[in-house]
Amino acid sequence: MNKLPDDYQPPKTAKEALDLLWQVTYPAELAKMLSERPATAQNPNPKVSRAALSKWKTVPIHRIPDIVELTGIPREHLAPEVYGHGPGEQPHAPPGP
Predict the structure, then answer these.
(1) d(Cα 17, Cα 87) in Å, to the nearest integer?
(2) What rounded mean pLDDT belongs to the chain?
(3) Which end of the chain has fewer CB within 10 Å, C or N?
């Protein structure tokens, strides 16, 4: 796993969020780390393949808590459309159960 670059700018789109994630970790590495996580009520099947990760267009909401814990990337940066906010705006509420 890599560190965030010194010139790091928080992402504003889902595409930028995935680009950031792949700067910090490789899909194969992340798939292995996620698959080793215990099952939870929110994520009863934590196993994920590298092929499945490569198809992501956005970071799935149910994966965000684990990815935050594993990478240290704030949730607002992994899903800016859901959690992020710009100057003068309130953060969006996360989706309900």
Answers:
(1) 19
(2) 81
(3) C
